[in-house]
Input
Amino acid sequence: MAKEIHKSSIVDKIIYAIIDMIDQRVLSPGDKLDSEREFAQKLNVSRTSVREALKSLSFVQLVEIRPSDGTYLTDDINLINEFCTKYNPLVVLNGIDYQKAYESRKIFESTVTELAANRATEEDILLLRESIDIQQQLLHQEDTWKYQIEDLRFHRLIAVSTHNEILSEQAAICLKHLEKHKLSVANALITFDEHQQILSAIEAKDPYAARLASDHHLNTIRGNLDIKTQLNK
Output
């Protein structure tokens, strides 16, 4: 379990910047981080603050500081996701708990999927099918890290299929903050099957079936909610 860290406001800023880089997949497990000087310049902070932030992250084993070599993100995916969930800026800064976040997504995404079933064009469906094919390839490789990226892309494509730019933007924000957990291969296989059911309903232009498939999928995601809630206590 991730250890607690104590931070000043400036160190907060640096740690949240690193978390955001992980969330955006700019940093992957085992990657080398920018140097202290580069971080200081990018974030307009002192190198001393950067050094303090990296030491804090080293203490919780999120990074490894290698003398004369640099700082590296751990390759422990479970630790990365546990830490990023616990110190998610949306939760820490705005006090949003995962129960409320889940409820918001369930209301929002079911409607989006229903609209997509009514409005998706042939091109939209081709892109969704392409995403399903990529997901299947990644599952065969048991690459759940990249699978999760494609999982998010699939849901964003559904939002784009509504042809409502506001909904697309809201979906991007929602997915960014609510998909912080790491899937096991077993859970990824379950979500993949559910993605196929969602796509089948959209292809059939059946909004009712699409909403049901989306609701079922979100109920599966709910299974991870209690774990996340415990991490943020």
Q: What stands out?
A: The first strand starts at residue 63 and ends at 66. The beta strands are 63-66, 70-73. The two ends are 13 Å apart (CA to CA). The chain has two domains: 9-87, 94-231.
